Amino acid sequence: MNARKRSLFRATGLMALVALLAAGCGRTSRETVLSSDTLKVVAVTESTLDINVSQYRHYTTYVLYVDGSKLSDAAFASLLRDPDAAGQTFVHTDVVVLGDDAVLVASRNRDGTRCWATRLSTRSGTAALETIVAGTVDCSLGAAPRGWTTLHDDASNLLLIRAQPFQVHRMAGYWYVLWIEGDVAALYAEDRDQQRLVVRLAAIDSDATLAEQVLPKAMYAVPDLLHASPEARKQWLFENFTVSMAGSPAIQLRSDNRLDTITPEVWAEYQAIDRQNKQDDARARAAGEAWIEAQRRALHDAEKQAPRAAD
Fold first, then answer.
1. Which residues have C-beta within 8 Å of that of residue 59, sequence separation ≥ 6?
2. How far apart (Å, rounded) are the C-alpha atoms in residues 189 and 206?
3. How do residues 82-136 score in pLDDT, each as one tens digit?
């Protein structure tokens, strides 16, 4: 191929690429997550090219089938037995398989104003739906050690869900699960009110605190555990703490821990930023309340003037 042809070929290829990026392109793939005599779940993943970064964005939802037929929105709403679900269109965003005839499902309505986390079961021969969480914030199924799933309710409490046998345990507080051994869970939380980080060993059945290690936020950086995998969370725990389950459970910071620390100067900067954010939030709330009050007064004045206008 001579230089002119190579140049023309390259230009044509670039023009095609530009056209593709400008128009964007997408593709849809389907994968069967569960298939049994009574229950089937299909994951539908839509991949769309983000022309801003030249990368595909993947978004997965789930389609539920009961006895060979797709579970319609009306049927799902009927099984929910929630007045807020009537007439809604649902998007099933998360599914965890519990067995051949049962799954955990996280769902929301089309506009995202309501969400549900439920257990869909066909064990009795007919479909049954058990509501675990119904809320307005987030009903996503979270990362947890093998055999477990997590949820957070609207009150920011942790729900630990065991797959086999199926059990739901409520743990007060917004915790991340680091590790589970038998009836004991290692939990992590950021206590913003008292400016500390807490790692706790808790009894799953009773939510009783068995042992606890507290770290001041003025000394230790907040770890990035929100999107960490269960394996990464467990590794973080044992890299930085000595955990004992024999006899009386205990947890202690390791002398060779790998926790990131911060200087007093950095902590002072964090505090200043936090104060500024709180002030901005307070001003925004005050402005919103003032606007609502102004609208209320305007409506009230208009109602008072209405009879005079009629006269």
1. 45, 46, 47, 48
2. 18
3. 998 999 999 999 999 999 999 999 999 999 999 999 999 998 778 999 999 999 9
> Going edge to edge, which strands form the sheet with 102-109?
90-99, 102-109, 115-121, 128-135
**Which pTM value belongs to this model?**
0.78
As a residue count, the chain comes to 311
Q: How far apart are CA 222 and CA 262, in angstroms?
A: 10
What's the pLDDT at 307? 64
Give every CB contact of residue 87 below 8 A, 6+ residues apart in sequence: 77
Pairing label, strands 209-216, 196-203: antiparallel
pLDDT digits (tens, 9 = 90+) for 129-188: 999 999 998 899 998 999 999 999 999 999 999 999 999 999 999 999 999 999 999 999
Q: Which residues sit opposite 119 in a β-bridge?
A: 104, 130
Residues in contact with 39: Cβ distance below 8 Å, sequence separation at least 6, in sequence order = 64, 65, 66, 100, 101, 102, 103, 120, 122
- Beta-carbon contacts of residue 13 (< 8 Å; ≥ 6 apart): none
**What are the phi and psi torsion angles at 197 (to 5°)?**
-110, 140
- Contact of 61 with 91, CB cutoff 8 Å: yes
Tell me 174's DSSP state: -
What would the two tokens of residue 2 be? 């001579």
Q: How far is CA 263 from CA 114, 116, 236, 260, in A?
A: 43, 43, 22, 10
pLDDT of residue 16: 40
